[in-house]
Amino acid sequence: MASTKQIVEKAQDAIGNGHKMGQGPVRYILFHSPVSVCSEKVRAVLGEVGVGYIAHDVVLKNPFAQNYHPDYVALRLLARPEGAKLVGGTWTGSSSTAETGYDPCVVPTLVDLGADPKCVEPKVIVDSKVICEYIVAQHHDSAFCWTASCPAAQRVISKHLDFVDQTPHVAQLYDGNPEKDQRPLFLRNAIGGGSLHLTQIEALEARLGQKGKEWSGSELEEAYKGKLAKTRAGQAKTAETIRGDLTYLNDMMVVTRRLLAALEEDLTQSTGEWLCGEQFSMADLMWGVSLFRMQLIGNSYLWDNLPKTKAFAERVYSRQSLQDAVIFYPGMLPSHHAAELHTKYRGAFAGFAHHRLVNALDVTTTCSQHKMKFMAAVVAAAAVAYMAFKQ
Ligand SMILES: N[C@@H](CCC(=O)N[C@@H](CS)C(=O)NCC(=O)O)C(=O)O
């Protein structure tokens, strides 16, 4: 039987795209995606702690769908909590494990190589919420982890980590907001109408078809089948909305508003500008990730009438870790709704370049004329090069 170390190495080889992040010696390996909200949470926490890690960029999109690679799924299965229900035919529109079960085919996955370099076996940790709490528990010496010795703060963090986990980010991204869908056009073109679910279903069916050739074993088979059932359930929800039944989307807006109202309430009750009073904590950072995601897809109007949340968003967006790991992270989804932050923190030309990038992507995904598509691709490449230069 392969050791954990060997399974980790196989997954690293399968995914590739590894690069060093953070400072100092490498403590962790992170399998993540620049555009995944769950990965953003972990990157932001690692940034706060200031630890060195190897980041492997997992390409989620078909035809690569690296998150379904058997060597990566095998790695995640190592960390399946005992007795944890695997994902199946339930789709809620949130990525919460508590709601839909344990998903073996997603990012992020963290591998702890151990504080002691002579450590025998690495430890695999899954689920963004669990990973973030794990990291904080490992780094008591970091100022960000002051909460580790404060039970009251831990309660606040745990409550708000759950809130962010329950926020239906996935539904908002995949299916849009039924009140007003302000997702960037290129995104709607690329994933709208259930097309993302359909390509995922295709990729999973292809993986299952490779049984006995590329992989073997009942555990992997169960993992792929569970993920396929979950994805089909998501597709069925999307199909309902296309037929005009908006119940699922209206329900997700009710949940989103309820969670934002709870944030507003706790910010109002707080004795300082953060959720734990004067001191910044993981609760604030997680909401920073969540609010930015909602803003990116055009939903920041939801806190127009929540003054504490509105001011909080401005404040938390200025946090260095959030900017480095999320807002300005290379490969982050561009959006007109985020351009103002590029202008504010990177200068007027950065904001301008960001807008042009979005326009160019809109054109490449809409227009059928090759010449226009080519010109848009040139504009997009120039904008990306400029933004990388400003990084
Ligand atoms: N509960 C998990 C959910 C992770 C998750 O849903 N990841 C998404 C990106 S945010 C993903 O990898 N999606 C790709 C797919 O489902 O194929 C966590 O919080 O880590």
How would you describe this structure to a colleague?
The chain is an alpha+beta fold and 391 residues long. Among the domains are: 142 residues, Glutaredoxin (3-Layer(aba) Sandwich), CATH 3.40.30; 54 residues. A 5-stranded mixed sheet has the order 1-3-2-4-5, with helices on both faces. Helix 8 packs parallel to helix 16. The longest helix is centred in the middle third of the chain and has 25 residues. The structure holds glutathione. Glutathione binds next to helix 2 and helix 5.
Task: List its traits.
single chain; 391 residues; alpha+beta; Glutaredoxin; 5-stranded mixed sheet; 17 helices; globular; binds glutathione
Largest sheet: 5 strands, mixed
Strand content: 5-15%
Structural class computed from helices and strand pairing: alpha+beta
What is the terminal-to-terminal distance? 44 Å
Number of helices: 17
Biggest sheet strand order reads: 1-3-2-4-5
Low-confidence stretches: none
What is the 3D shape? globular
Q: Architecture of the domain at 4-145 in CATH? A: 3-Layer(aba) Sandwich
Provide a brief overview of the structure.
This protein has helices at 4-15, 37-49, 70-78, 97-100, 128-138, 151-166, 169-175, 185-191, 195-209, 218-242, 247-269, 282-296, 307-317, 320-327, 336-346, 348-366, 370-390, and strands spanning 18-21, 26-32, 52-57, 109-112, 123-126.
List the helices and strands and how they pair.
Blueprint: H1 4-15, E1 18-21, E2 26-32, H2 37-49, E3 52-57, H3 70-78, H4 97-100, E4 109-112, E5 123-126, H5 128-138, H6 151-166, H7 169-175, H8 185-191, H9 195-209, H10 218-242, H11 247-269, H12 282-296, H13 307-317, H14 320-327, H15 336-346, H16 348-366, H17 370-390
Parallel strand pairs: 2-3
Antiparallel strand pairs: 1-3, 2-4, 4-5
This protein binds glutathione.
